[in-house]
């Protein structure tokens, strides 16, 4: 099945910290021969309807999976959980996402204040307004701050903005108020979706903690972990495939595409190892025919 379909179950638009519009994203996916694409913006589902409309308008041979990437807090770490095949009109989910977006706004105000303290020529309120405008009413991200710091010459690379200011060890880090992983999984299930632990090996956790995360995710009734990640070597792929198998979880894959010219490209993934059960094994629209 994976040979017949090019499947990418993790991508972003400008409704969160991606750079493309929903229309540009689906056009690019089709152009890269992706046949199944999940849009998984951070705590936001605003891209889903415009993306579906664009697929119709351009008559693209692309199956859109309604997705979201929910930020959660687990033992002080920020852990991302994807919801795939969620009903975008589910009231409990949309309310919870509204709350997360409100938490993002509160965090952004605090980050702006902290930045104004270490960079005294900045005004906290004015900076918050600028960042808020950049997010256009959708999901405010630290990436918006990073872009601002780059644009104004405070750093020479987005990554530097995280290292120096915005990341966990940065000067202006603000611990977020995200929901728990249990809650995210419950919301995703109640909206008819599958819960996928995103990029388990990309959190700066040691192996012992990654294994603990995967085990607890399975105990919390999660459905799958991402096994196929962008810019991946074979060791990581096999390691994740084994983690999934040991925890009796399915395997997902996604490029985590954010922008053109970045490190990640849509659909650019190694094939899942045979020992995995792909999360799409029982998706009827793929198994039919
Ligand atoms: P936020 O959702 O606002 O907490 O921002 C996290 C996003 O920043 C991630 O989804 C990545 O797209 C991006 N990012 C880029 N570099 C880093 C980094 N070094 N640490 C954390 N996030 C990063
Ligand atoms: Mn992101
Ligand atoms: Mn993520
Ligand atoms: Mn992502």
Account of the protein in words:
- The structure is a single chain.
- Helix 9 links the parallel strand 6 and strand 7.
- This protein folds into 2 domains: 190 residues, TIM Barrel (Alpha-Beta Barrel); 71 residues, no CATH class.
- It is built from 10 helices and 7 strands.
- The model has no long low-confidence stretch (mean pLDDT 96).
- The longest helix is centred in the middle third of the chain and has 28 residues.
- The chain has a 7-stranded mixed beta sheet with strand order 1-2-3-4-5-6-7.
- The chain is an alpha/beta fold.
- Helix 1 packs across helix 2, helix 3 packs antiparallel against helix 4 and helix 5 packs across helix 6.
- The protein binds adenosine monophosphate and manganese (II) ion (3 copies).
- The site of one manganese (II) ion has 4 residues, from loops.
- One manganese (II) ion binds next to loops.
Which CATH architecture of the largest domain would you pick?
Alpha-Beta Barrel
Helix/strand order: EHEHEEHHHHHEHEHEH
Tally of individual domains: 2
Note the beta-strand portion. 5-15%
The set of bound ligands, ions and cofactors reads: adenosine monophosphate, manganese (II) ion
- CATH class of the largest domain, named Alpha Beta
What is the SS-derived class? alpha/beta
Which residues form runs of ≥5 with pLDDT under 50? none
* DSSP strand tally: 7
Mean pLDDT: 96
Count of DSSP helices?
A: 10
The shape is: globular
Query: Could you describe the largest sheet, including whether it forms a barrel?
Result: 7 strands, mixed
């Amino acid at each position: 099945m994976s040979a017949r379909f090019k499947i990418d179950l993790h991508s972003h638009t400008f409704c969160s910290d991606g750079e493309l519009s929903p229309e540009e994203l689906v056009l690019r996916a089709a152009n890269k021969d992706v046949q199944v694409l999940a849009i998984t913006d951070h705590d936001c589902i605003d891209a889903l309807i415009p993306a579906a409309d664009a697929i119709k308008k351009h008559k693209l041979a692309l199956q859109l999976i309604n997705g979201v990437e929910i930020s959660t807090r687990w033992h002080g770490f920020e852990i991302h959980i994807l919801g795939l095949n969620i009903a975008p009109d589910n009231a409990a989910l949309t309310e919870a996402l509204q709350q997360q977006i409100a938490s993002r706004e509160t965090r952004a105000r605090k980050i702006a204040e902290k930045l104004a303290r270490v960079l005294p020529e900045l005004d906290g309120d004015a900076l918050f307004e600028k960042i808020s405008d950049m997010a256009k009413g959708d999901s405010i991200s630290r990436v918006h701050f990073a872009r601002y710091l780059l644009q104004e010459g405070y750093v020479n690379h987005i990554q530097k903005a995280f290292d120096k200011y915005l990341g966990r060890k940065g000067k202006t880090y603000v611990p977020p108020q995200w929901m728990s992983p249990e809650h995210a999984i419950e919301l995703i299930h109640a909206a008819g979706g599958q819960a996928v632990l995103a990029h388990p090996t990309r959190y700066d956790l040691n192996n012992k903690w990654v294994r603990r995360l995967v085990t607890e995710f399975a105990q919390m009734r999660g459905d799958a972990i991402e096994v196929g990640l962008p810019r991946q070597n074979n060791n990581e792929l096999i390691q994740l495939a084994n983690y999934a198998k040991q925890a009796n979880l399915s395997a997902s894959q996604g490029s985590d595409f954010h922008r053109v010219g970045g490190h990640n490209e849509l659909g650019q993934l190694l094939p899942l190892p045979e020992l995995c059960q792909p999360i799409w094994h029982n998706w009827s629209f793929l198994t039919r025919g």
